[in-house]
C-alpha cells in the first residue's frame, strides 16, 4: 500500500510540474498566448508577452518625399521626409512599463537594411549609401519607450535602388514575409537592465500558434513567440548578451528571404 501511495504521489507531482511548465494563457478573444514563454520563477531568462501600452487610433506615417544627390564619386546622399498624422513626435507616452524610455519622447524608428534603427524626433532624415546599391527601408511610429505601433497605417516599407548617377528608383512594394529587429538595442545601465523590451516588426505575414512564429534566441536560450505583441525580457545577466530573431514556419523551419533573421549584441552595465 505504501508503494502504491508513493507512486500516486510521484505521478501527481509530475502532472503538477507538467501543467505549470506548459502553462498557457488566453486573451479576451480566446487566442492562446505564447505557451512556450517562460514564467519568471526560477531565475532563468524569461520572455513574457505584454499588453500594448497607449493606443493611437488613426496614427499614420507616410513618406512625403525621397530625394538623392551625388556625394563624391561613389556615394549618394538621400533625404527622406515624412508625413505624420494623429501622432505627436517628442511627446512622452503614458505607460506603466518599467523599462528604458527616451527622454526626447515619441519618435520614428528608421531601419535601413535591418541594421540598428535611428530614432527620428523630426519627420525627416538624411543618410548616405553607395551608388549602384539596393536597399530596404522600414519606418514606423514608436512610443517613447520604443514600442512600435503595429498597424499598417503607422509604418512604411519600401525597396529602392540607387544608380550610378545617384538617381533613386523605387521598386515594387515587397510582398514576401519579413521580420525587422527593433529592440533591445545598445547599452542598458542600472535599473534599465531589470526589464528589457523585446520588440520587432513583421510584414506580409501573421503569427499564430498553428502558423508562422518568431524564434527568439537569447544567450543560447530559445523562445517561440506566436503573437505579434511587445515582450519583456527578465533575468538577463550583466555583461554582453546576444539576441537573435528568426522568422519560422508552422513546422519550425526557418523561412527564407532577404529580411527573416537578425542577430544583435547588447550590453547590460551596472552603471
Offer a few descriptive terms:
271 residues; mainly beta; five-stranded antiparallel sheet; five-stranded mixed sheet; 7% helix; 44% strand
Describe this structure in words.
- The chain is mostly beta strands and 271 residues long.
- Helices cover 7% and strands 44% of the residues.
- The chain has one helix at residues 2-21, and strands spanning 25-26, 32-33, 46-49, 60-70, 75-85, 107-112, 118-120, 124-130, 133-142, 155-162, 168-170, 178-183, 187-189, 195-203, 213-218, 221-225, 231-234, 239-248, 261-269.
- The strands form five sheets. The protein has a five-stranded antiparallel β-sheet, with no helix packed on it. Strands 13-19-18-15-16 form a five-stranded mixed β-sheet, with no helix packed on it.
- The radius of gyration is 22 Å and the shape is globular.
- Residues 1-42 have low confidence and may be disordered.
The radius of gyration computed from the alpha-carbon positions, rounded to a whole number of angstroms, is 22 Å
Mean pLDDT: 87
Largest sheet strand order: 7-6-9-10-11
Largest sheet: 5 strands, antiparallel
**How many strands?**
19
Distance between the termini: 60 Å
Order of helices and strands: HEEEEEEEEEEEEEEEEEEE
Number of helices: 1
Which shape, going by the Cα principal axes? globular
- Which residues form runs of ≥5 with pLDDT under 50? 1-42
User: What class, by secondary structure content?
Assistant: mainly beta
Approximate strand percentage? 35-45%
Helix content: under 10%
